[in-house]
Design goal:
By secondary structure, the protein is an all-alpha fold. It is built from 8 helices and no strands. It binds zinc ion.
Length: 163
């Protein structure tokens, strides 16, 4: 989605000429409960033509696909189902958070004011992040990475959240 009708809000280059409040109202058309159901929010900044033309080849899709297949196999071996099917107690068991990681997760959730559903999404994404890294336990770095994929909360909706 764009963050405003013209599509330039948050680009930081002053090209957005939407009137004050327009971008916020535009972004708020997606309700809080709907935002809460989206696992991964990724900000895709505009790619400058020069950057696009000169960029070197990134990781091959087949390499990424292999990594995903390995992570999925870890999930099935551990829980019998992929992480997307875990919730509540089974999700917490799969994460195997130590006391320090539990405290860190609580701190993140309190800071952002997440609902129980939001916390579950954090844990599920953190579990998958750890699987992609080949880690049996979810560590603080995985929680932090998952938190970066959480969307704009009700308190900070709008293009400021992605700048
Ligand atoms: Zn705009």
């Amino acid at each position: 989605m764009n963050w405003c009708p013209c599509g330039y809000a948050g680009s930081g280059d002053g090209r957005c000429h939407c009137q004050s409040g327009v971008a916020e109202r535009y972004a708020n058309r997606i309700s809080g409960p709907l935002r809460d159901r989206i696992d991964l929010w990724v900000n895709m900044p505009r790619v400058e033509p020069d950057e696009y033309i000169r960029s070197v080849a990134s990781e091959a899709s087949s390499v990424v696909a292999d990594r995903i297949a390995e992570a999925r196999a870890r999930q099935i071996a551990r829980s019998g189902v992929p992480n997307s099917r875990l919730s509540g107690r089974t999700l917490r068991a799969a994460c195997a958070l130590g006391p320090a990681e539990q405290a860190h997760a609580v701190q993140l959730a309190e800071l952002e004011g997440w609902s129980a559903r939001g916390i579950e999404r954090l844990l599920r994404v953190a579990r998958t992040t750890a699987d992609l890294a080949g880690c049996d336990r979810v560590e603080a770095t995985h929680l932090d990475e998952a938190a970066r994929f959480r969307g704009p909360s009700d308190r900070r909706i709008g293009f400021e959240a992605v700048s």
